[in-house]
Amino acid sequence: RRPDTYFLRSNECVLAARLQNMNPSPCKECDDGEFGSKFVTVVVSGNQQNELDYVAYQISQQGMDLEKAEGILEWTSKADRCRVAVPSRDRYVPAIFYQDVSEFGNKTTHSAQPYFPVDYLVVSVNGPTFPQESDPLFSCSFPIENRITAPQSVNALRAHLNRPENKPFRPTGQLKCLSDFHFIAYLAGNHTSVLPLDDDKNGIKALCSIVAERDAQRASEFMQTDAWLSLVQIVGASSSDDGA
Length: 244
Known about the structure:
The structure is a single chain. By secondary structure, this protein is of the alpha+beta class. The chain has helices spanning 10-22, 61-68, 154-161, 171-178, 181-190, 204-213, 216-222, 226-237, and strands spanning 24-26, 34-37, 41-46, 52-59, 73-75, 81-84, 97-101, 107-111, 115-117, 122-124. It is 31% helix and 18% strand. Mean pLDDT is 80; it is low at 237-244.
């Protein structure tokens, strides 16, 4: 696959059209209640900067209709060419044409028999894939689950809470301390007696809401609640305990 050859192989186009037909989009304006599809095919490949590049495609509605019409659309050994099935006494295949621009700038019409370029079936649906400047919701400083070399424990929790940026006069640092997915998962799995899961004021649910909204002020207030101070007291009282 090269930038000057083809976007999708012919068999990939037929497969993508089939998957789109298997996942139609509901539409109240259509008699059968369905039209098109939101199913997207993503190609992961290398780019000229030696980086992974993600490119999204869909097959056009015409391509979906061809695939749906009893196998009229067929893939071939030619990577950039699809084939229209040959008509027979038992199967009617309409005449299919496509247009391109000649070397003289004139529009020319060609029959799709026996082959036609897959480019006429492919629609690019690319958008911004990666932000130019990274701004992740979660940080990653708390130990990850199921790691023998760095297990999750009360000692790890204490070390996480004692980070320099976790100070009352640094609300953004406190928010960063809370915004760790593995830290939240550890609390939800081991300290629900202090921080109930469904408590939207003093529990895990409130903590998740604060992190999702990136509210530094609420993070600072949450760390002053009785439930949080009880957790801090438990962690401090367990200074000699290596287990969770």
